[in-house]
Design a protein that fits this description.
- By secondary structure, the chain is α/β, with parallel strands linked by helices.
- It has six helices and 13 strands.
- The strands form two sheets. Strands 7-8-9-10-11-12-13 form a seven-stranded mixed beta sheet.
- Strand 11, helix 5 and strand 12 form a beta-alpha-beta unit.
């Protein structure tokens, strides 16, 4: 099993002889405006892709955790072949099919895909009214004979749904969307440093991979911030913090 952070939440996962593209955001740096009601006016994405988009156009399947533009953008929808299998959360299939994709499968609980069991997990994309406004989000767990169990948590804060996923699957590897994304008011809508620390202390058996940083303007916790906090907590050895294009 090998995992590449492309940028932000976009991952390329080589697993059980297959390749999975997760949450593709292929837009050029600066093509999109700042996130509405965010605390700065930097245009998105903040950084370009680490190499040409052709590197990630031929997976065996695409996994989309939810349809926010930093996880499924117009550039990805335009670039990807329309016959690719797309796996998504229930309720998102019509929008993806409406972009011309012919093989879209909503994952209610779990499915088998060419020898890999793919299970959907829950999450909370924030708290209170903001969390309700952000809508449903999902994570996905990959399991296969002879491979580590991989949990891709998606856009979620540290919450009961994440604890349930950890208890139910006891993943060997867990990808967490950090960055402490937030608006001018309210609590973070993805894990911040506190959330990652709580995750690590709860699941000390799991090797965490922290992504979703330094690419979108309302993600305020940087890789350097997270690395420093984890060092203070004695948790740095449990968490990989890849740069864009890095492989694990």
């Amino acid at each position: 099993m090998k995992l590449q952070l492309v940028r932000h939440a976009t991952l390329w996962v080589n697993y059980a002889g297959l390749s999975f593209l997760v949450d593709p955001m292929f837009g050029d740096a600066g093509v999109a405006p700042p996130i509405a009601n965010s605390p700065n006016d930097r245009r998105n994405p903040l950084v370009p892709l680490p190499s040409g988009v052709d590197s990630w156009l031929n997976p065996d399947a695409v996994v989309v955790t939810h349809l926010h533009r930093d996880h499924w953008d117009d550039a990805a929808a335009a670039a990807l072949t329309k016959t690719l299998p797309i796996l998504c959360q229930p309720g998102n299939e019509a929008a993806i099919a409406g972009a011309g994709f012919a093989s879209v499968t909503p994952v209610d609980s779990r499915i088998e895909f060419r020898g890999v069991t793919i299970s959907r997990t829950g999450g909370q994309h924030g708290t209170g009214e903001i969390g309700r406004t952000m809508g449903a989000v999902s994570g996905f767990v990959l399991k296969a004979e002879g491979e580590p169990t991989v949990y891709i948590a998606g856009d979620t804060i540290w919450c009961d749904e994440v604890r349930e996923a950890l208890d139910g699957f006891r993943p060997d590897i867990a990808v967490v969307n950090a960055g402490g994304a937030r608006f001018r008011t309210g609590d973070p809508i993805t894990m911040d440093a506190d959330g990652v620390v709580s995750f690590c202390r709860y699941a000390s058996y799991t090797k965490a991979v922290a992504v979703h940083m330094d690419a979108i303007n309302h993600c305020l916790v940087t890789r350097a911030d997270l690395r420093a906090r984890l060092a203070e907590e004695g948790l740095l050895q449990q968490v990989a913090i890849p740069g864009d294009g890095d492989w694990i």
